[in-house]
Specification:
CATH class: Mainly Beta
Structural class: mainly beta
Largest sheet: 6 strands, antiparallel, barrel
Number of strands: 12
Strand order of the largest sheet: 1-2-11-10-7-12
Helix content: under 10%
Distance between the termini: 11 Å
Radius of gyration: 23 Å
Order of helices and strands: EEEHEHEEEEHEEEE
Number of helices: 3
Number of domains: 1
Strand content: 35-45%
Shape: extended
CATH topology: Elongation Factor Tu (Ef-tu), domain 3
């Protein structure tokens, strides 16, 4: 049994428990994944397993050569390394299924948040804006001062201003597994996870 898997976010729904409580859940298509490479401390300097998920339509020759070492006919689209002490070469080509997880467990989900594009300081950094009364005009959504005067005579690096928002790596911890569907490779996790539908997420115990 493995403590990690790669999945695809399908969307959200609600599940009713036996006591009638409605629980908001995220549906994740978790696996099946294949172990495509084994990293060892002796050869690579660290111990990890490279895991693949999803089929690649137009693989290159280098892709085909890489996956043939794991006795895989198909090339996989998403590759991700997970650090683990299990680094036996016998694991090469093994399959990771959603049955590695069970109801009631808590998992950590990592994904890429939704991109919001170029956003202003109020949306991006939750600024309050200027006052709307006492003779003020056109300052309601302005950022205000971004520095001092003659000294330092510049804007400090890291000053919170408008710019690209979203599209960041986000990790959410302690999400409870509400339901596991082994037949359809589905994992139902309580609450929301980062990213839009059909985005790739990484799940670890």
């Amino acid at each position: 049994m493995f403590d990690f898997i790669i999945g695809k976010k399908l969307g959200m729904t609600s599940i009713f428990l036996e006591n009638g409580t409605s629980v908001p859940c995220t549906i994740i298509e978790a696996g099946p994944c294949k172990i495509t490479q084994v990293k060892t401390s002796d050869k690579d300097g660290y111990s990890a397993l490279q895991v693949g998920f999803g089929l690649k339509k137009n693989p290159t020759k280098s892709d085909q050569g890489h996956f043939s070492k794991a006795n895989l006919k198909d090339s996989l689209k998403v590759l991700k390394e997970f650090k683990t002490e299990e680094n036996s070469q016998d694991l090469l080509g093994s399959e990771i299924l959603v049955n590695s997880f069970s109801e009631g467990e808590y998992v950590t989900v990592t994904g890429k948040s939704k991109g919001k594009g170029f956003a202003g300081h109020m949306k991006r950094h939750n600024f309050g804006g200027g006052r709307a009364s006492h003779g003020k005009n056109s300052v309601m959504r302005k950022a205000g001062s971004v520095g001092a005067g003659t000294w330092p005579g510049r804007v400090w690096p890291g000053t919170r201003m408008a710019g690209r928002m979203g599209g960041d790596k986000v990790t959410v911890e302690n999400l409870k597994v509400v339901k596991v569907d082994n037949n359809k490779n589905l994992l139902f996790v309580k609450g929301a996870i980062p990213g839009p539908s059909k985005s790739i997420v990484y799940i670890e115990k």
